[in-house]
């Protein structure tokens, strides 16, 4: 699987799967989650509500992933995953890596060939950007999916993209 870095808007990626850095409620929020729900439209929210009413009554656990339609997004599916909140007192890196690994697994089970990830937990969950990129690339580079041929790490803004390029090169 080819891993690429892209500066841009996750909601504009023309791929089979767009990954949503969701909150556990699955009902939308701020940042990436809010943008995906706004652009995806009511179909995404309706499927998320159905998931809450059936399998995830208490919300989606951190590190897990689940798929819905992509609605109005330029993708076939959205894979929602809940990243961990960064903590200086507790190493939650394994949970962050689980977000990427479980999202890849769900996308591969769907038969997707292309997937776009935001930088999970690096926004309001305060994960340091450099380490967030390192954790993402560790999982994406090691993955050997059956169907996926491309994984994009979509970085919002030139400063974040520059950090990601440095981490990839280093």
TrEMBL record:
Top-level taxon of the source organism: Bacteria
Pfam families from the UniProt entry: Macro (PF01661)
Entry-linked InterPro entries: Macro_dom (IPR002589), Macro_dom-like (IPR043472)
Ranges for domain Macro: 1-170
Entry protein name: O-acetyl-ADP-ribose deacetylase (Regulator of RNase III), contains Macro domain
Organism, scientific name: Micromonospora auratinigra
């Amino acid at each position: 699987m080819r891993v690429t870095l892209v500066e841009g808007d996750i909601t504009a990626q023309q791929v089979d799967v767009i990954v949503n850095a969701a909150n556990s409620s699955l009902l939308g929020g701020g940042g990436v989650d809010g943008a995906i729900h706004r652009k995806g439209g009511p179909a995404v929210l309706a499927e998320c509500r159905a998931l809450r009413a059936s399998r995830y009554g208490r919300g989606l656990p951190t590190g897990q992933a689940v798929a819905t339609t992509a609605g109005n997004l330029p993708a076939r599916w959205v894979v929602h995953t809940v990243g961990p909140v960064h903590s200086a007192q507790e190493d939650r890196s394994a949970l962050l890596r689980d977000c990427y690994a479980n999202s890849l697994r769900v996308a591969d089970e769907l038969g997707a060939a292309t997937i776009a990830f935001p930088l999970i937990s690096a926004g309001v969950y305060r994960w340091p950007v450099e380490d967030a990129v390192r954790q993402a690339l560790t999982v994406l580079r090691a993955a050997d999916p059956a169907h996926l041929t491309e994984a994009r790490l979509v970085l919002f803004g030139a400063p974040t993209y520059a950090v990601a390029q440095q981490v990839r090169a280093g």
